Amino acid sequence: MAVTPERPTTSPASTVDSTPGWITVGAAFVSMAVVFGVAYSFGAFFAPMSAEFGTGSGATSIVFSFTAFCWFLLGSVSGRAVDRFGPRPVLLIGAVALAAGLIATSRVTQLWVGYLTYGLGVGIAVACGYVPMVAVVGGWFDRRRAIALAVAVAGIGVGTLAGAPLAAVLIDAYGWRRTNVIFAVAGAALLLCCALVARRPPEAEGAAPLPLRAVVRTRAFRSLYVSTLLASLALFVPFVFLPAFAVEAGVSPVLAATLVGVIGVASVLGRLAIGGLADRIGRIRTYQLSFAILAVSFLAWLFASPTTALPLLLVFTIVLGIGYGGWIALQPTVVAEVFGLRGLGGLVGLVYTAGGIGALIGAPLAGLVIDATGGYRWSIAGAMVCATGAFLALLPLGRGDFARSRDRC
């Protein structure tokens, strides 16, 4: 059955910076809260799944890493799909994938099957609920694009805050399998509600986008791609291993899972504060600052010990969350500023494929190092080096890159 594209809205009320745009921001906020609340709750599932299947840190972490790889890689597909068909059918696909993937995961008897059921189900859901909605919100706004995107992606932080602690409580009460079923039903229902109210933005104006083959040859694209790759190698290490590290340091399991939620709270604050700062000092400069903050945060985790674990881990999660929030809030805006609004979904998705590679490699590699060394320090140090490299890769990025690239084509 062919999918009919949504027709672009052309009524006077449906112009940029208007009420329909803010309604779509609300739908984007909820969709991102749902999909990332589920995805980033995996730290709470890590220990019970590892214990039931008798697998080590490296093997168990592949569940999350493959999931993140899928959502980043498929973001290029869902981004192009939303450019063509609008947000509604894309969100509906995400709802179906989330429900099917989590229910199937609740029934697996071998961990490698969970790689496929959880990875594809949740991965497709995040790909449908994130990149497409970022592109749609970006298309609805001009003057207030930075703050609108900051509000929309703040849903990621809220979902992160609620997802991991809620998962820990439900797992304690019902077990990890039934918790997946609960998340499947509730998450799919919320995504269906988002699909009902999300609207396609007005047709973007401006020059036609560069062909993707020309885009990937630009210095700006290389800078964005390499920085995203290196930052993703670092970012997903704490999302997988921080709760286990905290429990080994004497923190209770629920409080340890809540540390991932603290990243979510800090990221909300970071998204909103950095979104406003970007309008004053420049989006690209603020984007670079976010990566510097991300790199510095790992120092607190590196020096955490059993006697200082909780306070230093709180510092780590807050600082990490601020830097991570700024990165996620500003990346679509920076892509639009450098390359233009036309075809934004496909371009953002293309950059995010770098995140998929980093997510696929980073956490499993860290898990192998943890298993080999019997501790976390080398993995934390490696993550900090990658985050620092991500900041350095962004230093050549400038606003005039797009114009220079177009002049050469």
TrEMBL record:
Domain Major facilitator superfamily (MFS) profile: 23-401
PROSITE patterns for this protein: MFS
Record's subcellular location: Cell membrane
MF term (GO), any: transmembrane transporter activity
Position of the signal peptide: none
Swiss-Prot/TrEMBL keywords: Membrane, Transmembrane, Transmembrane helix
Bilayer-crossing regions: 21-47, 59-78, 90-109, 115-140, 147-169, 181-199, 220-242, 254-274, 286-304, 310-330, 350-370, 376-398
Record has Transmembrane as a keyword: yes
Predominant place of localization: membrane
Record-level GO cellular component terms: plasma membrane
The protein, known as: MFS transporter
The organism of origin for this protein: Pseudonocardia bannensis
